[in-house]
Amino acid sequence: MSFSVPSSLEAELDELTTHYPVKRSASLMFLHALQEHFGYISKEAMEWTAAKLELQPINVFELVTFYPMFRQEPLGKTHIKVCRTLSCALQGSAELREQFCNRLGLDSHAHTAQTTPDGKFTVEFVECLASCGTAPVVLVNESLHQTVSPAAAEEILRKGNLA
Amino acid sequence: MAEQFKLITKHLDEPGFSPDIECYLRHGGYAALRKAVASPSRELADGKKLSPQEVLREDVKASGLRGRGGAGFSAGLKWSFVDRRSGKPIYLICNADESEPGTFKDRQIIHRDPHQLIEGMILSCWANDVKLAYIYIRGEMPEGARLLNVALKEVRSKGFLGKNILGTGYDLEIHVHRGAGAYICGEETGLIESLEGKRAYPRIKPPYFPAILGLYMCPTIVNNVETLCHVTHIVNMGAAEYAKLGTPNNTGTRIVSLSGDINRPGYYEIEVGKVTLGQLIHDSNFGGGLKPGRSLKAIIPGGSSSKVLKAGEVFKLNRKGPDGQMSKVDVPVLDLPYDFDSLQQAGTMSGSSAVIVLDDSRSMVVTLGNLSEFYAHESCGQCTPCREGALWLAKATHRLTHGEGRKEDTSYLAHIAQNIQGRTICAFGEAAAWPVLSFVKKFKDEFDAQGAADEAARANGIPPTHRPSPVVTLNLH
Amino acid sequence: MSAPAIPAPAPAAPAPPPVETLTVKVNGKTLQVPKTHPDWQGKPQPTTMLQAARCGGVDIPHYCYHDKLPIAGNCRMCLVEFGTLMMDPATRKPILNEDGTPKISKSVLPYEPGTPRGAISCATPISPGMEIYADSPATKQMRESVLESLLINHPLDCTICDQAGECKLQEYSVEHGQAGSHFVEAKVHKPKAVDLGPRIVLDDERCILCTRCIRFTKDIAGDDALGIVNRGSYNTISAFQTGKFDNNYTLNTVDLCPVGALTSKDFRFKMRVWFLKETKSLCTGCGTGCNITVGSREGIIHRYEPRENDAVNGPWMCDTGRLNYKWIGRPDRLTEVRVNGQKVTWATAVKDIGSRLIRASSGSVALIASARQTTEELFLLKSLATRLGAVTDSVPREGEADHLLVNADRNPNTNGTRLTGIAFTEAGMQLPLIAAGIEAGTIRTLIVFGEDVTKHGIGPELLAKLEMLVVSDILPNATTAVATHLLPGASHAEKRGTFISVKGRLQKLTKAVESPGDARAEWEFLHELVHDVTGRNGFTSIEGLFNLMARETPAFAGLEWANIGDKGVDVKI
Known about the structure:
heterotrimer; B: alpha/beta; Rossmann fold; Ubiquitin-like (UB roll); 3 domains; 5-stranded mixed beta sheet; globular; C: alpha+beta; Alpha-Beta Plaits; 7-stranded mixed beta sheet; 14 helices; 28 strands; disordered N terminus
């Protein structure tokens, strides 16, 4: 299947490019938008971005592998990012992640992001989400859940199952 | 009883206060901008005339405002370093990449009062002849980015941003730029590289001082969200009035992020130096004390990079006596005024003003393991000592928290950390090393005991136990 | 490397302007050093601590720094402790000790004033009165710790590493390292034997991430093909797609790599470097005249490497030129002297040619000499031609030029053919005349050196009309096949002589290996032939021959072999 970017998205990205005196600056914004649209960033998406911004594909590949928010493979529909760092850890984020993993049949000792076979959920430990006062926090797709109790975690799973 | 002083956070939790511009205007918003651009030039005693923009630059200097991002450097001085003779455009970047563990103050401003930031930014840009500015916001704050974009659209429609702002002939554009999950983007030159569409590798200084060779090799100002908000208040209050807030050399207010083992975690705005660490932790209108039956073990006073303070420590601080003479005074840790200079004299820093409290239920070994893993994950890997050392530290602490410690691990950890600090391209080296150096120094017994216990267990043929550890995401093997 | 080049003797050159200097101390020794040094692009920039130390003969160890690449400052190997003048903030003048010497404030960590702070000497400019402590205990400790860090995740597979013997990690470990490592953790594993491109293999575990290869490829070769993927300790040098790193300069990254991470597919596992004999010579692939080092062992060439010459190629060379040695050892090399198909001795052949040439009537001989012959050979051929009244020419060889080193003129010595008078402004102009002469029967003898004239308008049917066809070449071709007199010549690696680049740089070729069989350097048998035909003598050595040529050729006036040096001299073209 050939890679193609809808013209509306391309127009949006072309507008974004005008925000910068140097096209290359738009790289991260391009990758966010492409990831949002395609669910992940494929090699084709990197090549497309490079061509649009007059770069070499390696310039984009360097970014995709440096910035942890970018993914090279599709993730679950509900992406659960549990904060791992100190303040959340002190409030039980490891247990919270374990709860998510156990309920979804994922390995709670795995080092990287894990996705359920049905593609519904991805659970990942991430570094500080800058909401330490309401620890433990979980970013579910784009929405931040604060002071997440075991019951609140169940609710996140329930909603994800309905999604 | 110590009180909050709400300057920046004044409206944040006010019922009915919303992030839209109409609400902000109803609360006196953009008055500072109108005031500044309409202000006359100022004649100095020596006959020199300052333009209105120069007046604001001087006022920021006179206000004593120090950067709220971490280093606490004078904001006015930072502005004064800007190369204004190069003929190149000057850029301003708002550092909204809030990611120092423990810190969550900028998030509050962006989410609840984005116009306060934008007004401060417009003022700062105007004062520095900036025509194009960016807000570099953490990738993990998509809602914040959305709110800022809405707010920018609003200010444009009101004529506070864009062409010919308020009829002054001054043009400015501000764009929101999203990061994508890299702590190192908080370092200003790493942030600049990232904004240029590259890996966030901090630049070597010399020669790449942002004030001279910053974004696109042009003079660039990078200021923290909270710092920029203060500019609005300096204009509103006047520099002299503002400088009366806080304490000498530590003026104004700061938003302290409190988290960890306390009853009332949250953000609290204080006059700098007018509230002590003890008050922040124990007072009922701040942290509200520890959980029942718990006692204080340690305080990480300025974000996870700052050197840890141990309960019961006493520091020698320079104090001015009633006779005006400076003398050394013993100050117990809880009596340390929460400001830049006192914490520095106590051998640590107020950093991003994030206080993480640890009670006596916590293992310092496990706590350090959590932090070291953070730094191993976040090291950009550009320069040798940090690239190799940060993961080395994480592996060593991981061993210690998984029953495979050695007696010599305390000095081993110190050895690794000593060889990182001061030898790296950016301050991340210190950030990774300081927690280690301070933990193993101040809690040496705990680390020694851990290593000894593991050695004894191994000698007796007991397999390594997996202690409860809030860690493990990195591929450490 | 960046020591000021010894100025070539140029009598008319105006005196250079006085160099502004600064006074600094390096390891306690007071030095006057130039205020500026050229940066990687040759632009003057404030002198760095590393450059100042070099002026005092002190080499500060470094990995990522390279004179001809943008500064990265990432390896931290060149960290040094230093001190600066203590200034009085009021008067802005140095504060003095009681003995009148300036007070020095040593660099310390601002948060730990008892601990020295290092600065990277590659990027830190010097200031007046600065003191650089390149061998202080603190500096040594910094180096030691950087080396320890670089080695913790390194595979330490030196026994099978191609870089062994020329590895900076090995060298510095001996000079600056410590015997043991504190490291007891598991190493990071990374990709091994990555097929980066047609000529390059990458071992990411050996890589120390100095980024020299990335910077070279982007900023010098102009092909932004390499980068770093992943983050932190997992950082890995990579191309977007394996196997596609393929510009004409990729092999320079192997030279630049201070460790054994980037290896040449052509050279890897072939030879331990310490067995190689190194011979300073030239690349003959085009008119640029890149300086090279030939690595050979027991008569076999194993590699070419660029030899730094700022007047010509800097430290680089192209991949085409670097691999242009393969044919030298080809089994079908011409190794026998033949007259009318019969193998004969050199003496027989040269005598026979000489006696026939003496009898040839003026104008009945033509001579075509390749612009791949040395200037000395061309000079001898020209003397022969002058005596015989022979028309002479050469064969142009054009290709595409690139932005860096490759010249459109693929002949290494076009200027040699011009300055000796073999060819005129446009080489090849005479070739149709020669062809017509043979056709008409006026030209009955043709002497060809180093060209297959059948590809240049003088086909086999014309050659068949000749009474005598003297051909010297290295490899067989359609012209050598029909020669009446076949003289096996020497490749550029098998003889001495000079070439003159397109820009007029006259440079020396040095013999690295012996020619196979009876093949001989052309100048050696040519001088006998010239003697037999013209009666001239006095050039039995290459030095004597060059000096004679210099005396008789206006462009070389004043030159002597002994004064050419390893990096050549400019001549008027």
